[in-house]
Write a structure and sequence with these properties.
Blueprint (H helix, E strand, L loop, with lengths): L47 E11 L11 H19 L4 E7 L5 E2 L16 H14 L10 E6 L11 E3 L3 E2 L5 E2 L1 E4 L9 H11 L34 H7 L7 E4 L3 E7 L13 E5 L4 E8 L12 E8 L9 E4 L37 E4 L4 E9 L2 E8 L9
Parallel strand pairs: 1-2, 1-3, 1-4, 4-8, 9-11
Antiparallel strand pairs: 5-8, 6-7, 10-17, 11-12, 12-13, 13-14, 15-16, 16-17
Amino acid sequence: MSANDTGNYTLPEHGNYTWTPTCRLPSPSDFMYSMGFVSSPGCVASTGTLRAFMLFVDFPDAMVPEGENAQAVYDTMAPKAAEWYAQASYGTLNLNVTADTSAYYRMPKAVASYDWLGSTFRQDAYARDALDAFTASGARLPADVDVVYVVPTGRASPWMSRSQTLFDPITTRDGQKVKKTVTFGAADGDLSAMTMVHETGHTFCLPDYYSFDSYAGLYVGGFSVMAQTLATAPDYFSWDKYRLGWLRDEAVDCVLDAGSTTHVLTPLAVAGPAGSKKAVVVAASETQALVAEVRVAAGVDEALCAPGVVLTTVDTRTAGGSGPIRVVDATPGSGGCVGLFDDLMDGALALTLEGSKSLAWAPVSSYDVPGWGVRVTLVGVADQEYTIRIDRQESARTNSY
């Protein structure tokens, strides 16, 4: 089979067209953070060097206290976040964060007046005030900056209690345009490397995977930093890595037709040998896909308690906070890994308990995915190569988009 027959190379476009089956699902134009390919031009590039700048602010009624050190805050956040991205991206992304740690720049308004969690809060106004406070002093942002991180003094807690990423660009008073601005909350948990990793994910236009209406792990459990900054297995899903360019087409097997196919996957957490496969995508339509990947206790997923083949579903017409990606639980009702109380964390296909930290984990090797007409079977594991079989009842549908 040639490369062009795999389905990976059929590039989608916006607009009215008849969908040609492909595993690169297109992005609906009416979704700000779609799970499809062809992302918004406002997204920051996710490969190469991301040039970011960190500045610090305080407030007339919440001035930085003696002893609070901007350099120490930077050291807590930026180097570890950069290391995380280097590892998770297989070296394809370099998060280069410079900073002005010489001062906390004074905001023009009292911290409470920004109404951080209230109905009148305007993140763009807050971000613009921060940039104005910085540039009014005569300081200047680096010329080629893509992202600005605004870090408040800890004295701003509890008024500023959550971190957010501004989707729209900001222009400084001297005319410099910044694609994305991250405004951190003031609590200790917000001033962490993993919060920085999560918010930086939004600059690539990744959506939130936690539930806006229920508990955080409803849709993906303890997987993905885009669901929880303290996720047990915080690595990005293979679908994310594929969309971001960290995985190439050659690393993804695409299933478009009915029948039985066999695939050999290596763990997502490590780059693996040249030519290794990281995911199998089963495209159901232009908006939905089922994805298989291998998650083990390695790399940024070192705390994973139940290694195996993790199945996820993707829906490009489901918004962030409502489950655009969901982990399929192949062992429903198991109760999850001991001590985590999360039923999804031991939901992977596996053959034995070897390597698992869980005493309650009862693995299964084959699972019929409800509503998909697809059975996924883990055939064997040898030298970190997981052989799976996909049995599919019907082909991808060629609907009009």
